Amino acid sequence: MTAHAKPADSPRLRSQGGRAKKPGSPHPLAKAYDLLFAAHGPQHWWPADSPFEVCVGAILTQNTSWTNVERAISRLKSAGRLSVSGIYSLSPTALAELIRPAGYFNVKARRLSEFVRVLREDFGGSVSRLLAGRTHDVRNRLLAIHGIGPETADSMLLYAGGHASFVVDAYTRRIFGRHGWCAPQASYEELKSLCEASLKNRPPQELPAYWGDYHAQLVRIGKLRCRQAEPLCADCPLRPLLPKARRPQAGHAVRRPRGQVARATLPAMTGPPTADFIRADALLR
Ligand code: SF4
């Protein structure tokens, strides 16, 4: 658990409709998970065969879709290079060529090389040694490696290390913003802190699995329903949790000329999105 300002103390989280929950009632974020889980079932994340593969995927998925990451990982596997020694002994050019489908392949090759170098030289090539210790300390250890930012570090912590460290991404921001659970300009650390403080309705040992599936559920609903340009609220499991003013009314749904799915649009978001938000959102369209 990282040390951050408490969500309830943050005016940026409170001012955009972060309503106080009634005493004894589940937190809206906990209700959201129950609705998503009931609709989708468990998501079984992270799709990987080993903790090392999780770490490689977490670096490769920066600014690209998971489909592209799968193609890059498949090429590494086919070349017999999806291992610490396999990547360590590759030249940057050869590694970049193998991971080309993941996009930004020169940058990602440098990041992957540096991650593997630290892993090998400082932790004997062992992911479990790299990720051993208090969550806060391990997170700082990861963030000190070139090319590993908060989302990548939290993905490694949660899915490779079994730490209770919530992962925030552009889908989280979009969904939470539309439901009034955070302000568009809330920072990564504020959103992470909000989730970690609000989603403790499980025993501590169950939090990594809970938060891991929670993030996966948000990604699924972000891809399927909560799209940037045209959220499909009418048949979304989270529709009951929309603020009343933003909830599509009966009869408000429209049918697209060639589509079969009933759709409903949302009133415009309030407040200007930040540059980060726009950049991240653009990647998800
Ligand atoms: S599609 Fe609509 S109801 Fe579903 S998560 Fe997005 S804003 Fe909420």
Structure description:
The chain is mostly helical. It has 2 domains: 1-229, Orthogonal Bundle (Endonuclease III, domain 1); 230-284, no CATH class. Helix content is 50%, strand content 1%. It has a two-stranded antiparallel sheet. The structure holds iron/sulfur cluster. The site of iron/sulfur cluster has 14 residues, from helix 11.
Short description:
The protein has helices at 11-14, 28-40, 51-60, 66-78, 84-88, 92-98, 105-123, 127-130, 135-143, 150-160, 170-178, 188-198, 207-224, 275-284, and strands at 254-255, 262-263.
Average residue-wise pLDDT: 84
Count of alpha and pi helical runs: 14
Q: What would you call the structural class?
A: mainly alpha
How is the biggest beta sheet arranged? 2 strands, antiparallel
CATH architecture of the largest domain: Orthogonal Bundle
Shape annotation: globular
Strands of the largest sheet, in order across it? 1-2
Radius of gyration: 20 Å
Query: How many strand segments?
Result: 2
CATH fold field value of the largest domain: Endonuclease III, domain 1
Q: Roughly what percent helix?
A: 40-55%
CATH homologous superfamily caption of the largest domain? Hypothetical protein, domain 2
Q: What is the C-level CATH assignment of the largest domain?
A: Mainly Alpha
Q: What fraction of residues sit in β-strands?
A: under 5%
Number of structural domains = 2
Q: How far is the N terminus from the C terminus?
A: 32 Å
Small molecules in complex: iron/sulfur cluster
Elements, N to C (H/E): HHHHHHHHHHHHHEEH
